[in-house]
Amino acid sequence: MKFENAFFELAAGTSEQLPPGDMPEVVFAGHSNVGKSSLINKILNRKSLARVSSQPGKTATINFYNLEGARLVDLPGYGFAKVSAAEKKRWAELIEGYFHQERDLRLVVMLIDSRHPASKDDMMMLDYLIDGQFPMKIVLTKIDKLKPTERKKRLAAIPDELDVDLEYMLPFSAVTGEGAQELRDIITECVSEEA
């Protein structure tokens, strides 16, 4: 699978605009400013296919990237306080609309900032994914920003905070590339499996 051949397919602002679920999909979910766009660009070996914004909450659409017969699906970041109630409602409808459609969903990559305890919104998303029995991998972003002792402490604390085994987690850095190849391998394996 040539990740660098991926291209932007479309952006959906309402559930009616979602493309048909006619190919395997890997979904990326996480809090605003957790580093989703940076992660997507890193695993695709691209600088700016997914737009990185200095303004959290900027991605207000579900963005689809086509990857040789599969799709990477970038959900809007959740939990950004400066968004209107109406906009938050639209996001919720859009995301729920996505998950409730008939789709060939192979994996949800849930991003959590390794430096901080999971937020209330993170825990709600995690519960939603666990309750829905979605296949999931938790990616701990911005791991390069932790000093070795802090890193050790956070990696020991996170499984208890999330009540999830460490084997479901992958430390990741868009800066150093740590975890990028492992995540590509996980995606390739999920997409290649027979549905």
Word description of this protein:
The chain has 195 residues and is of the alpha/beta class. The chain is built from five helices and seven strands; from the N terminus they run E-E-H-E-E-H-E-H-E-H-E-H. It has a seven-stranded mixed β-sheet, with helices on both faces. Strand 3 and strand 4 (71-74) form a beta hairpin. The model is unreliable at 53-57 (pLDDT under 50).
Secondary structure topology:
Blueprint: E1 7-12, E2 25-30, H1 36-43, E3 62-66, E4 71-74, H2 85-100, E5 105-113, H3 120-131, E6 136-141, H4 148-162, E7 169-171, H5 180-192
Parallel strand pairs: 2-4, 2-5, 5-6, 6-7
Antiparallel strand pairs: 1-3, 3-4
Q: Which regions have little confidence, pLDDT < 50, spanning 5+ residues?
A: 53-57
CATH topology: Rossmann fold
General shape:
globular
Alpha-beta content class: alpha/beta
